[in-house]
Write a structure and sequence with these properties.
This protein has helices at 11-22, 27-37, 45-56, 63-70. By secondary structure, it is mostly helical. The protein has a domain at 26-70. The N and C termini lie far apart (41 Å).
């Protein structure tokens, strides 16, 4: 039996589907997944740092791990 292949255009769509399927119980894992995909793109460093800090809240990452993700 072959698994159904589902493609998402945006990571946010994927995360919303996970929330819908599994509920809000694993917020920490969702925060970690969001941290791993965040990029500066066209934003200033100040904007990026602010967004990174917002996403990091609730991730339960320790300081050292957050620094690694930031880099």
């Amino acid at each position: 039996m072959e698994a159904e292949k589902v493609e998402y255009e945006l990571v946010e769509e994927f995360l919303a589907e996970i929330k819908k399927e599994f509920g809000e119980e694993d917020k920490e894992s969702l925060k970690i997944a969001e941290l791993k995909r965040i990029e500066q793109e066209g934003r200033t460093i100040e904007e990026f740092v602010q967004d990174f800090k917002r996403v990091a809240r609730g991730s339960d990452y320790k300081r050292c791990s957050l620094i690694k993700e930031f880099k």
